[in-house]
Design brief:
By secondary structure, this protein is of the alpha+beta class. It has 14 helices and 30 strands. It is elongated, with a radius of gyration of 31 Å. It catalyses: Exonucleolytic cleavage of poly(A) to 5'-AMP.
Length: about 600
């Protein structure tokens, strides 16, 4: 399968890597090198298996065969392909010999004998040195370690070796910012895979990778030099600016390695923006916390679906350079910021689905975190947790509108709301959602925690809507943390679109709100809905009440919170927010040095 240009160099590289792991594996790999390789992919959920190998003429074959087909039919098809390949090779050889020679004379007629008619080669499959019968089904015949013989050539069968099903490099790469390849593996895992990074050799540099300098015109193919980085993530330096990157990776699963792949960046490394608003904050978060602490982050990322509108460019963020609103640029900053916090829990709002799958998952997975996503309409919520500290036990996400209308938990609240038809209509039009994940400590199974994440309705006059959404959220969280589980602590993160002076915040931290609070008429008397609300939690804003967590040209205020259950958790440390000078260096947010119009909240929490 891997007899492509440079394939043997790749194989030698894999062998060197294997030697670094265990001598026994290296010996096995070297022994296997005496035989060609054929890769079989066979999974129970699919009706066909695939078989890939290279014929002696250099052609590469990819065959799809029914798993329930008798082996004899598959072997017959292989023999036919081999015969065709032999005929093509013979024809090509004859054509070369019939070309005019270097002095311009033609070949003499009849000087090249016609090739004898090719015979169909013998094709057999052996397992443990015994021929496999033709009536054995493909699913049973093509076993790992079997040997396929085509004429004089033998192939070792590798059934379901580790393989990359997806491999991509970012479209925009900046010096000083981590490059996190997006990858998906089958029959393998990233931790057992091998990575090696290269960069383009600068003009005039000696040709690397075993080549020799050219004394004539430059080669149309780029030459590469090793960076010395053999990790999944590579952070380019200023010396890499203007150069492209190449990643050589070999999938593994702890027992063996699969076919290597190489990937070159489509762009060169660009210069970074210099100092970013989060650089100083990273000085407080250089290491992952110990098991007694939970470093928690809440951050509204500013969805690309909102940042890329003409209204955003001309009205909301006219002070921001247009390129700094591009998603590829902002994702470099977001990845560096989030990975630099070394967090155990990250709750994100305004997350585009493509940003989650193509950017956040590859970056945060490379740094030990796993995530779940809940879509709203055009964007959604994401919660990530550190895999060495937590496992995901269950998810209990809801849509506020659907829960309010159908869940008996909210029967009384709905009965009160229907008394105010105008308000009811507005509330039920909202698409806001709540993401709830129950996590269990990997070190102490008795420690479980309910992590909630939300983004409440945004409109400045929607105070009463946010009150009702918060009531639904807290009732649902109580059901999960107290009814479904035996009183587990709660961390409730989000963009609540409410300053500390609002009814929503008062309700959250005090446990109740009266029916005469002014926010029940936040959108005028026509939509007034008076009701009293209570909840059972003793909540506190872990990061206090900062002057602002959202800073744009026309507004700044504290809208984001990490609410914690004071009965079970306490605050160990709050990571300082950027200084006002840092925030306003480019007038407001977002900017070339800050990827969102919000500021991340970061704190270390401690179990009581």
């Amino acid at each position: 399968m891997w007899r492509l240009p440079g394939s043997r160099a790749v194989l030698r590289g894999v062998r060197r890597a294997v030697e670094r792991h265990t001598r026994a594996e290296a010996a096995t790999e070297t022994a296997a090198g005496a035989m060609e390789r054929a890769v079989v992919r066979c999974v129970p959920s699919e009706p066909k298996l695939s078989l890939s190998f290279a014929l002696a003429d250099g052609s590469h074959k990819n065959m799809q065969r029914d798993q329930s087909e008798p082996l004899g039919r598959a072997l017959s098809r292989i023999a036919t392909n081999a015969l065709k390949g032999h005929a093509k090779a013979a024809a090509a050889k004859k054509s070369r010999k019939n070309r005019p020679n270097a002095s311009g004379g033609g070949a003499c007629a009849g000087s090249v004998p016609e090739p004898a008619a090719a015979c169909e080669p013998v094709v057999k499959l052996y397992y443990r040195e015994e021929a496999v019968a033709d009536d054995v089904l493909n699913v049973d015949a093509w076993q790992d370690g079997a040997v396929l013989q085509i004429g004089d050539v033998k192939y070792k069968i590798e059934r379901n070796p580790p393989a990359f099903t997806e491999l991509q490099l970012p479209r925009y790469i900046m010096a000083g910012f981590p490059v996190c390849p997006k990858l998906s593996l089958e029959f393998g895992d990233p931790a057992s895979s091998l990575f090696r990074w290269y960069k383009e050799a600068k003009p005039g540099a000696a040709e690397p990778e075993g080549g020799s300098p050219s004394s004539s015109s430059p080669s149309p193919f780029p030459s590469w030099t090793e960076t010395g980085v053999n990790e999944r993530v590579y952070t380019p330096s200023n010396a890499d600016i203007g150069l492209r990157l190449k990643l050589h990776c070999t999938p593994g699963n702890g027992q063996r390695f699969g076919p290597s792949r190489e990937l070159e960046s489509v762009c060169t490394v660009e210069a970074g923006p210099g100092t970013c608003t989060f650089d100083h904050r990273h000085l407080y978060t250089k290491k992952v916390t110990d098991d007694s602490l939970i470093r928690t982050v809440s951050y509204n990322l500013l969805a690309d679906t909102y940042a890329q509108t003409e209204f955003s460019r001309s009205v909301l963020y006219p002070y921001c350079a247009p390129y700094a609103l591009e998603v590829d640029y902002r994702q470099n900053l977001i990845q560096k910021e989030l990975t630099g916090y070394n967090a155990d829990l990250i709750c994100l709002q305004e997350v585009d689905r493509s940003v989650f799958t193509d950017s956040l998952v590859p970056a945060l997975e490379a740094f030990g975190l796993e995530g779940v996503f809940r879509i709203k309409q055009h964007e959604g919520l994401a919660t990530f947790y550190r895999k060495t500290k937590f496992t995901l036990l269950s998810q209990h996400d809801i849509s506020f509108q659907e829960a309010l209308e159908s869940d008996l938990l909210h029967k009384e609240l709905l009965e009160n709301l229907v008394k105010y038809p105008s308000a009811q209509e507005r509330v039920l039009q909202r698409s806001s959602v709540l993401q709830v994940s129950v996590l269990q400590s990997t070190k102490d199974s008795s420690k479980r925690i309910c992590v909630a994440n939300t983004h409440l309705y945004w409109h400045p006059k929607g105070g009463y809507i946010r009150l009702i959404q918060m009531a639904v959220a807290l009732a649902h969280i109580r059901h999960v943390s107290c009814d479904l589980y035996a009183g587990i602590p709660v961390i409730f993160c989000g963009d609540f679109n409410s300053t500390p002076s609002t009814g929503m915040y008062h309700f959250a931290v005090s446990g109740s709100i009266s029916e005469d609070h002014e926010d029940w008429a936040s959108n005028g008397e026509e939509e007034r809905c008076n009701m009293s609300l209570t909840h059972v939690f003793k909540l506190k804003s872990a990061c206090g009440e900062p002057a602002y967590t959202n800073y744009v040209g026309g507004f700044h205020g504290c809208l984001d919170y990490i609410f914690i259950d004071l009965n079970a958790l306490e605050v160990e440390q709050v990571i300082p927010l950027p200084s006002h000078e840092e925030v306003t260096t480019h007038q407001a947010l977002p900017s070339v040095s800050h990827p969102s119009d919000h500021i991340a909240l970061v704190c270390d929490l401690k179990w009581k």
